[in-house]
Amino acid sequence: ALLGLAYALATLSRLDEALKLLKEAVRLAPTTAEAQVNLGNVLLRRGDEPGAEAAYREALRVKPEFALAHHDLATLLSRRDGVDEALTHAREAVRLSPSLAAGQDLLGRLLVETDALDEAVAALALATTLDPTVPEFFDDLAAAQAAQGRFPLAVTTARLALRKAAARGRQQLAADIRGRIAYYRSQAASRPPPPAAGFGHAPRAPAQD
C-alpha cells in the first residue's frame, strides 16, 4: 500500500511526500528491492544522485536478478564519464528482461559510445519494435545508423521519429529531429554509400580471369 501511494504521489510530483513514504517502506521492509528502486527514482528526481545510486545498489544486493534495478543504475551511471559499468548493468537488464524496450534503447546508446555500431543498431531496432510509440527510440536508431555512415537510412528513420514526436505534441523534440534530418541529408548528399558487402567491410574484389 505504501509503495502504491508513494508512486501516485511521485507521479503528481509530490516528491517530498513520496520520499517520506518510501523511507518508511524501506524501514519496514529493508529487503524489498522494489521499495529501494522507487526510493532511488525519487531521490534522483530530487537531484540526489549519490542517494539514488546507493538505493539502486542496495536493491541489487537484496535481489541481484532485478532487471529494473540494473536498468535504473545503468541509466544513472551513463551520465558520467566512462561507460564500462553502465554497459555491464545495461546488458544484464536486457538479459533478464529482453522485452524491456527502454533497456534495449539504453544498451544501444551505450554501445554507440563504444563504437560497437552493429550491435548498437540491433538493440535500438529491437527497442523500436518492442515499443513503436516512443519517438526517442527512432531518433536514437537514426543516430546509430548515421554513425555507421548509412545516412539515407538515417534520414528515413529520423522522419519516423519526427512524425511520432509531432503526433505527441513534442515540439522541441520535433525541432531537434528536423535539425538532425538536415544534417543527415547533407551528409548523404556528400558521401558515397557504404559498401554493399556489409557495414564496415570492404567490397569483394572482382574475380580475376
Give the number of helices.
11
SSE order: HHHHHHHHHHH
Radius of gyration: 21 Å
Gross geometry: elongated
Task: Please provide the count of β strands.
Answer: 0
Residues in helices, as a percent range? over 70%
In whole angstroms, the N-to-C terminal distance is 78 Å
Mean pLDDT: 89
- Uncertain segments: 196-209
Sheet with the most strands, sense and barrel status: none
Give me the secondary-structure category.
Answer: mainly alpha
Strand portion? under 5%
Folded structure, characterized:
This protein is mostly helical and 209 residues long. The protein is built from 11 helices and no strands. Helix 7 runs parallel beside helix 9. The protein is elongated and about 60 Å long. It starts with a helix and ends in a 19-residue tail after the last helix.
Structure keywords:
single chain, disordered C terminus, elongated, 11 helices, mainly alpha, 209 residues
In short:
This protein is an all-alpha fold and 209 residues long. It contains 11 helices and no strands.
